[in-house]
Design goal:
The protein has 11 helices and 6 strands. By secondary structure, the chain is mostly helical. The chain folds into 3 domains: 77 residues, no CATH class; 82 residues, formyl-coa transferase, domain 3; 35 residues, no CATH class. The radius of gyration is 25 Å and the shape is elongated.
């Protein structure tokens, strides 16, 4: 929270439960690693997952900045501590996200909007310069972006290969056709191939799905029927009941 929120305001919490979600993903990776290790050693593993450790592991460049400089990171609102401009801006009709991630993109943008002087200005010529003079550059960009609609700026940026995107509300996210195929919500009206009782399906999808039958290590009998796409819950229940020695055929 100390690095989230407006520069001159109070600390903000993230919009979702980051610690819980991260711990779950780390736990899934740890389980897979333990299962893989068991194939070679025959031994199980005890997995220890901490919510706090999971949060610290996600600090990314915030942690790196502190470890390198020794200075506690501060809040930058929607800005980036190491890249400028890299944040949201208000257009004439709403907000959008804009990022000139390197000096080449910055110069290209300045040429496209007829502001070549910015690219040559010693205050803004390199990313390091722009970071140091953030307080001078951001107001200039805010004034420029307020002159046109967000869609116009996004189209311009896309035409010259610079990252820019609308800031969608959740309803718009689910309405976008590019997201529909990932949505597997029951009753959402998009004919999902798998229904999970009103929940969204895990975003990871494999290119091929080949269900396998499982056999006891003693090979005395084969148990369970071949799972299908239409019965993932039953398949999961059968796997949970399998002994530690169960292996796929």
């Amino acid at each position: 929270m100390s690095v989230t929120g407006p520069e001159d305001g109070e600390p903000y919490r993230a919009g979702i439960a980051m610690a819980d979600l991260a711990a779950g993903m780390f736990a899934a990776s740890a389980i897979l690693a333990a299962l893989y290790a068991r194939r070679g050693t025959g031994q199980g593993q005890r997995i220890d997952i901490s919510l706090l450790d999971s949060q610290v592991a996600l600090l990314s460049y915030v942690a790196s900045n502190y470890l390198v400089s020794g200075e506690p990171p501060r809040r930058y609102g929607n800005g980036h501590p190491n890249i400028v401009p890299y944040q949201s801006f208000r257009a004439r009709d709403g907000f959008f996200a804009f990022a000139a991630g390197n000096d080449g993109q910055w110069r290209k943008f300045c040429q496209a909007v007829d502001r070549t002087g910015w690219a040559d200005d010693p205050r803004f010529a390199t990313n390091g310069d722009r970071v140091r003079h953030r307080g001078e550059l951001v107001p200039l960009l805010s004034e420029l972006f307020a002159t046109r609609a967000a869609r116009a700026w996004i189209d311009l940026c896309e035409s010259i290969g610079i990252p820019a995107a609308p800031i969608n509300t959740v309803d718009k996210v689910f309405q976008r056709s590019s997201r529909i195929h990932k949505c597997r919500r029951a009753g959402c009206g998009h004919r999902p191939s798998i229904r999970f009782r009103g929940r969204c399906r895990w975003s990871l999808r494999r290119s091929a799905f080949r269900p396998r039958r499982f056999r006891f290590a003693t090979r005395r009998r084969t148990w369970g029927s071949t799972p299908t796409r239409s019965s993932p819950v039953g398949w999961a229940a059968r796997v949970r009941r399998s002994p530690l020695g169960a292996r796929p055929e």
